[in-house]
Design a protein that fits this description.
alpha/beta, Heat Shock Protein 90, disordered N terminus
Length: about 1000
């Protein structure tokens, strides 16, 4: 259902609801009617009560006496007593008569009694009541009494609709027999409701019993629904079948769905064909007997059948006429569809816009009968450099056609070509609404629009008139003969100006689609404008002079003519949709070609990246292997390193101690290399602390000094003495500077050069500056922007291209900055900026501590490590410095020892078999054992070390470690614990 239909349906439903409210508020007559309805619906009514009710209303008394005085009841017209009349009519007949009077007179106080539709509805209700009563008498005698009343009231909803919407509903009742659809379906489509729902509202507003409400509401429901109704299912089944038989008796046509329903209902009640025919004869007789009671005229059964047959014959003639008109209309619609299909095949093969426009013109000029029109698109593919797009299209008329392609700012004011001369020149005024030819002979004037919709001709009154030109603005034959483009130039020029204005206000061009409707309405009086729409985007427009096909035939009905007009509108939309799809396919093909070229370039670049990735994967595998080797080397190296330090502490000969220190330095180099290998395979989060930047740079230069000496390169240092510590991870900074020094070494491969390293800081500044400058080959300007990109390298076969990218990431993670400047053939300068350590963090003594076996205050210390040699070294070193020590190999044994003996401090490894150091820290916290813990680990991750600190560890050392630094940490931890205990 369309939005318009929905709105109309809601409006009519509101009328019916207002009618029901009015019925509820009627004065005296409805009060009498309510008392009558109450008596009618009683199971065992008192005849005396109804006589008093009838006598209270003179109009009702006259109607009852008139019906009682008919000759079939043998009364004389002089007998005017209500009691006698009621007695002769009987309770059952009196119920039926009163129900009919109340329903009819209450709804139609002002309706004409000779209204044919009202008489037809009432006659069908009487026939249905008679049929339902006969069915009940045969199949369910207990239901015979209320069956007639239910049948009489079942179509009260039709009466309500006829009263609320007389003109609309009468037209619907006239059209229904010719439609082949059920009446209630047509009602729902046209009015938004059907008579069953209206009958339910009416019965409920009158306060009728539930049986009457269901009879009015559910008599068109499928038989499966009726079977599920426990209370009234039997009566409603009889009523549904009686309704169908009443239509047959009155020779009223049945649609296919009703015929199928008839079969199911007859199967359910088990009636044969012969029994049904006998029943229908009895219905006709009963209908003839009761017609006079309900003011329907006194016809016998034969006359009733004759009238029904005459009405059926007239209906068949009308149906045949409508069928012929529909056949003619269908033939015309099929011709339109064939034209659209043929154009669609051509459009599917077309590759150029000229061929697409020609296919549309051919279809419209042929079966559509549209001999003059124009189609255009806003083509971005044909736009030149700096253009917003071009108007490309085709105009045709009187057998001629002319293509065009203009930039938006170059649409001509006059028709271009040999035919555009003299009096036929078209001028476009500044006001688009007043665009007129230069003189009376010219293109159509673009006047102020009347209200209407795109795709329809709209008359001067603003009422849609498809197929009718009411404007008088068509181009003359003289102007059309001059050039097919001539009538459309004002529209195209104004359209181009609109698009340009929209593009200025909206660089994405989205408003091109938004204003098409307004533009179409502006010229709808003279042209029919249909947009070319694809996925809610407007690509262009089809502008037509002819607005509709001629009628299907001279005898065509209004509905058949409407169907042709609607079909033409749909076919035009389909044709425009096909053209839009073809244009989009052309654009997509061009886009695909351009994308293929970009894809080829991307594939070549991807091959290069894949080669770098393979190299990186190989390096990663080497890194994993190196990390495994480092793990195996680390523990023995830690033992050697610690033993060497202990020997140095014991040695008194200065020369020997110098030799020991030299060995310690080399082992430190080995340890640093192992740490770098493990960090490469398993990157860790920065561990920020105050760092002496000068000392760190000196150490890195010491590691690389041999390489520079071999190349004959000089190292020039200019380090500021009062440099504050920076807030950084020393190991990560060492990785950055070593990588920069290696790059400088490679840049100076061609001969001797110089490496300059400078640090600087101005008091009060939050950052320290570091310059690393070489006099090597330099970097090409086109490579400077990519120098920090992953896998970028200018040294094919030397390195992975990850060094500078990793260095950049490290410096950024330190909230610092790194920049590069370079001159090809002269050298390169890397300038780094690193944050100064916060003043609240003590920098401590960052200078190396002088060796010596100074005695410390005693304490009982527990060593927990799974490596026996580490245990022995630590116990020996501790005892040398005045401590007592005990050792064990895993967390479980340590916990048992802690329960038996109190220790002042514990040295703990994290990764151990059985129970780990983290488990032991958690158990100590749970047991509330107050004791400082220093962690010594070789392979623990930064996450594990952070977790250890969270569980109470005061310091973490990584193997191999310096014994004197470890002893300093032990002494500091014991002093802190002692001071804490004294305060408590």
């Amino acid at each position: 259902m369309t939005a318009t239909t929905t709105h109309r349906a809601g409006k009519n439903a509101g009328k019916v609801r207002e009618l029901l409210k009015r019925l509820e508020s009627l004065p005296a007559p409805p009060a009498v009617a309510a008392r009558v309805l109450e008596w009618v619906t009683q199971a065992d009514p008192n005849i005396a009560d109804i006589c008093q009710i009838i006598a209270s209303d003179p109009s009702l008394s006259l109607k009852v006496l008139k019906l009682a005085n008919v000759r079939v009841h043998g009364l004389q017209r002089g007998d005017m007593k209500i009691e006698r009349a009621a007695s002769m009519l009987g309770t059952a007949t009196l119920r039926q008569v009163l129900l009919g009077i109340i329903i009819r007179d209450t709804l139609f106080l002002e309706h004409k009694r000779d209204d044919p539709q009202l008489a037809r509805i009432w006659l069908h209700s009487l026939a249905c009541a008679t049929a339902t009563q006969l069915l009940a008498g045969k199949l369910a005698p207990k239901l015979a009494e209320p069956a007639f009343s239910c049948g009489l009231a079942h179509d009260c909803g039709k009466l309500a609709l006829l009263c609320a919407l007389p003109e609309a509903y009468e037209a619907l009742l006239e059209r229904a027999p010719l439609s082949g659809q059920p009446l209630h379906a047509l009602e729902a489509e046209a009015l938004g409701m059907d008579h069953a729902e209206a009958g339910k509202w009416l019965a409920q507003s009158w306060g009728l019993p539930g049986l009457f409400v269901d009879s009015a509401w559910l008599h068109h429901q499928p038989e499966a629904v009726l079977e599920d109704l426990d209370e009234h299912g039997g009566m409603l089944t009889l009523l549904a079948l009686g309704d169908i038989l009443a239509h047959e008796v009155l020779a009223e046509p049945l649609d296919a769905s009703t015929m199928a329903r008839r079969k199911h209902l007859l199967d359910r009640v088990n009636l044969s064909f012969h029994q049904v025919e006998q029943l229908k004869e009895r219905v006709a007789v009963g209908l003839a007997e009761r017609r006079e009671f309900f003011s329907l005229g006194g016809e016998d059964a034969v006359a009733t059948f004759c009238v029904a047959l005459q009405r059926a014959g007239g209906l068949l003639a009308r149906m045949n006429q409508e069928l012929e008109a529909r056949r003619a209309a269908d033939a015309q619609v099929n011709s339109l569809l064939a034209a659209v299909a043929g154009a669609g095949q051509v459009l599917a093969r077309a590759r150029e816009t000229e061929d697409m426009f020609a296919a549309v013109r051919s279809a419209l000029d042929g079966d559509f009968g549209i001999a003059q029109g124009c189609v255009y698109i806003l083509d971005a593919l044909e736009a030149g450099e700096g253009d917003d797009g071009r108007l490309c299209g085709l105009a045709w008329g009187d057998g001629a056609e002319e293509g065009f392609s203009w930039a938006l700012d170059a649409v001509p004011a006059n028709a271009v070509g040999a035919n555009a001369v003299g009096a036929n020149a078209v001028q476009v005024n500044a006001d688009p609404a007043n665009a007129v030819p230069a003189n009376a002979v010219g293109a159509v004037a673009a006047r102020s629009p009347a209200k209407g919709s795109a795709g329809k001709a709209v008359g001067a009154s603003g009422v849609d008139t498809p197929g009718v030109d009411t404007s008088g603005d068509r181009p003359s034959e003289a102007s059309a003969a001059a050039s097919p483009l001539l009538p459309f130039l004002p529209l195209l020029r104004i359209r181009a100006e609109h698009i340009r204005a929209e593009r200025i206000a909206d660089t994405n061009g989205q408003r091109f689609s938004d204003s098409v409707g307004a533009f179409a309405q502006r010229f709808a009086r003279s042209f029919r404008i249909v947009p070319l729409v694809l996925d809610h985007a407007v690509l262009g427009e089809l502008i037509l002079v002819e607005t509709a096909c001629p009628p299907a035939s001279g005898q065509a009905s209004e509905s058949a003519s409407d169907s042709v007009v609607q079909a033409q509108t749909r076919c035009l939309e389909q044709l425009c949709g096909l053209l839009a799809a073809a244009l989009e396919r052309r654009r997509a093909a061009a886009s695909l070609e351009a994308r293929s070229e970009r894809l080829g370039a991307a594939m070549r670049k991807m091959q290069q990246i894949n080669q770098k990735l393979i190299q990186a994967e190989r390096l990663a595998a080497v890194g994993q292997l190196a990390a495994g080797a480092a793990h195996e080397i680390n523990n023995p190296l830690a033992i050697i390193y610690a033993r060497l330090q202990i020997l140095g502490l014991k040695e008194t000969n200065e020369a020997q101690r110098a030799a020991f220190r030299q060995m310690e330095e080399q082992i430190g180099r080995i340890s640093a290399i192992l740490t770098q290998l493990m960090d490469f395979a398993r990157p860790t989060q920065p561990q920020f602390a105050p760092v002496d930047l000068n000392a760190l740079l000196t150490g890195c230069l010491s590691m690389m000094s041999g390489n520079f000496e071999k190349r004959g390169a000089k190292v020039i240092c200019g380090m500021q003495a009062d440099l504050p510590p920076v807030w950084a991870d020393a190991k990560l900074l060492e990785q950055v500077f070593v990588n920069l020094f290696i790059n400088a070494e490679h840049a100076m491969e061609g001969g001797a050069g110089a490496l300059g390293v400078r640090t600087a800081w101005r008091g009060g500044q939050g950052h320290v500056r570091v310059d690393v400058e070489d006099t090597g080959c330099g970097i090409a300007p086109e490579h400077l922007e990519s120098i920090f990109d992953p896998f970028f390298t200018t040294k094919e076969g030397k390195g992975t291209g990850l060094g500078l990218s990793t260095s950049y990431s490290i410096i950024k993670s330190h909230q610092g900055d790194i920049r590069v400047t370079s001159t090809l053939g002269k050298g390169t300068l890397f300038r780094l900026s690193l944050p100064v350590a916060p003043a609240s963090v003590p920098a401590g003594d960052l200078r190396p501590r002088k060796g010596g076996a100074a005695k410390r205050s005693g304490g009982d210390i527990l060593v927990v490590d799974d490596e026996v040699r580490i245990q022995e070294l630590l116990v020996e070193a501790l005892e040398m410095h005045g401590y007592t020590a005990a050792a064990c190999g895993d967390g479980e044994a340590a916990l048992q020892l802690l329960k038996k003996r109190r220790f002042n401090l514990m040295l703990l490894d994290i990764r151990m078999p059985s129970r780990s150091g983290l488990w032991l820290l958690a158990e100590i916290r749970r047991a509330a054992i107050a004791m400082p813990v220093i962690v010594i680990t070789g392979l623990a991750t930064s996450e594990e070390r952070n977790q250890a600190l969270e569980l109470g560890a005061v310091r973490c050392f990584q193997k191999p470690f310096k014994v004197d630094e470890l002893l300093d940490a032990v002494d500091a931890a014991l002093r802190t614990a002692s001071r804490t205990a004294l305060r408590q």
